[in-house]
Amino acid sequence: MNPSDILQLDRVVHERVRLAIMSMLAASPDLSFTEVRDALDLTDGNLMSHVRTLQEAGYLAVTKAYQEARPLTTLALTKAGREAFAAHIARLAAIVQHARPA
């Protein structure tokens, strides 16, 4: 295994909560803030912190709207986010492949 493969992992994506958020959103066009929060058993503040980090990296789009007169915050991966997630998963797969005994 080449150690540089591990060093090249995207630190924004690799953090476990952000990886979980991106995994959920990769499987769905979008999810509500509440759905993600509840699925990952996070507090609002904790999730918002990770959302901000992903947003600043250009990986996540946040849409605020109203549904039945109630605020609704929706999260979705951007094109750059989908590409970063796919590259991250491919790099992890390569690392695992190289770590397997012959």
Q: Which features would summarize this protein structure in a list?
A:
single chain; 102 residues; alpha+beta; Arc Repressor Mutant, subunit A; 3-stranded antiparallel β-sheet; 3 strands
Tell me what the structure shows:
It is a single chain. The chain has six helices and three strands; from the N terminus they run αααβααββα. The protein is α+β, with helices and mostly antiparallel strands and about 100 residues long. It has a three-stranded antiparallel beta sheet. The protein has a single domain, classed as Winged helix-like DNA-binding domain superfamily/Winged helix DNA-binding domain (Arc Repressor Mutant, subunit A, Orthogonal Bundle), CATH 1.10.10.10.
